[in-house]
Amino acid sequence: MSDGGMLVPAGPQARILAEQLSTAMIVCTIAFLIAMACLAAALWWRGRRAVADGWWLWGGGIVLPVLVFGGLLLHSERQAAQLDAPAPPDALQVSVTGHLWWWSMRYADADEGPGFTTANELRVPVGRPVRLTLTSDDVIHSFWVPALGGKMDLVPGRLNRLTFTADRPGVFRGPCAEYCGTQHAGMVLHVVAMPPEAFARWRAAQAAARPPPTTPTGLRGSHLFSERGCAACHAVRGRLDGPRESLGPDLTHVAGRLWLGAGTLRNDTPHAALRRWIADVHQVKPGARMPGYGHLPADEVDALARYLIGDLALQGLADQEADRQPDRQPDRHADPSADAAAPPSAGFKRGTVAAVPVPSLTPSPIR
Questions:
Q1: Nearest alpha-carbon partner for 247 in 137, 157, 153
Q2: Residue 336 to residues 25, 132, 154, 326, 330, Cα–Cα distance (Å)
Q3: Out of 73, 185, 221, 293, which residue is the most buried by the measure of CB atoms under 10 Å away?
Q4: What is the CA radius of gyration of the chain?
Q5: Are 152 and 142 in contact (CB under 8 A)?
Q6: What is the pLDDT of residue 246?
């Protein structure tokens, strides 16, 4: 589902890196051809007048490498200096924290709306610079979205920064680029670049707190969320606020994300995907720190999923559904009648939302 990669850049910073890579490949190819030409010349010259050792030592061993690779180094340094340019004042400010094994994103308060927290999916407006503040809550992770820019480590106790701009819409995959444990391969971030108008609607919807459930199943799921211990690690703004964001992802609008479990399970049909995640989390993502709830009755799993889905119409998703594909994986908790009643993932109706102020979201202090 990812659009592009390092060789198909989707932003100016990534384009600089792609150009550096192309230049390095061309220079190395030329150097290889020169070396092969020298070898061929040496074979052809064998038995004739000997070439002085100084030519090979100084010419081939020092002067040529210094000219070739020194020039390449200077060119790369000049290009890389553009990547360190300070972000403009109107850049979108987002704090990203790495956890075992998921990503937390906190959008700072801005003129266009209050800040909020989400997880594993970074949405940005096309054409607007994005300034990331990066840190880790446990071990060293590394942020790397090849189509959008360079790699930057997330180090516990340290705040690193990275600026990038997406110049076309798309969904761009970013794996954790630093081995961080059992589920290192299952720690994937997706960057969704959206047209500015669609991003503004999405932001307003995400900043809004969850309204109370209105159906009996949703109300039961709300109670189960606390009784079964889900609220000990996860927050649902407006319903179960609390200092839990370092333990588990914020689930306020989880049904609107493209993936569950940090790129592990496609969220094409939120009801089925959430039920599968709740009941079979360790089959979907072995090593995940969330305990499995496969022992719960199917109706309780269903109620929890219904509660987490909430009202999809309030999640501002109507502009980015093109990439959703059906998830054909089996679900032993699946209920065909419930699926039929579940809201479809495509063609959501956008509702009216009210932005609810939340506390200022400044970058995490060094821990």
A1: 137
A2: 54, 42, 43, 15, 12
A3: 221
A4: 26
A5: yes
A6: 64
Highest averaged pLDDT of the listed ranges 22-31, 185-194, 205-214, 320-329? 185-194
Cβ-proximal residues to 310 (8 Å cutoff; 6+ apart), any chain: 210, 211, 213, 218, 253, 255
Q: What is residue 346's DSSP assignment?
A: S
Give, to the nearest 10 degrees, the angle between helix 216-227 and helix 298-309: 100
* Portion of the chain with pLDDT greater than 70, in percent: 81
Q: Which residues pair with 133 in a beta bridge?
A: 95, 161
**84/44 Cα distance (integer angstroms):** 50
Sign of the alpha-carbon dihedral angle for 83, 89, 94, 97: positive
Read off the tokens for 6. 């390092």
Distance of CA 118 to the CA centre of its chain: 11
What size, in residues, is the chain? 367
**Could you tell me the maximum CA-CA distance found in the chain, to the nearest angstrom?**
97
Q: Model pTM?
A: 0.77
Of 318, 116, 350, 112, which is closest to residue 236 (Cα–Cα)? 116
Positive or negative torsion for Cα 31, 34, 39, 42: negative
Q: Which pLDDT band, with edges at 50, 70 and 90, does 244 fall under?
A: low
DSSP lists the bridge partners of residue 99 as: 102
In angstroms, the CA 152 to CA 135 distance is 10
- Tokens describing residue 47: 């038995």
What pLDDT digit, counting tens, does each position of 97-120 carry? 999 999 999 999 988 889 999 999
CA-CA distances (angstroms) from residue 150 to 25, 145, 160?
18, 7, 13
Residue with tokens 């503040």, as numbered in its chain: 133
Angle at 167 between CA 162 and CA 172, to 5 degrees: 70
* Tokens coding 136: 């880790």
CA–CA distance, 231 with 235 (Å, rounded to integer): 6
Helices (H), the chain: 12-45, 53-54, 64-80, 196-207, 216-227, 270-284, 298-309, 336-341
Report how far residue 296's alpha carbon sits from residue 225's, in angstroms, rounded to the nearest whole number: 12
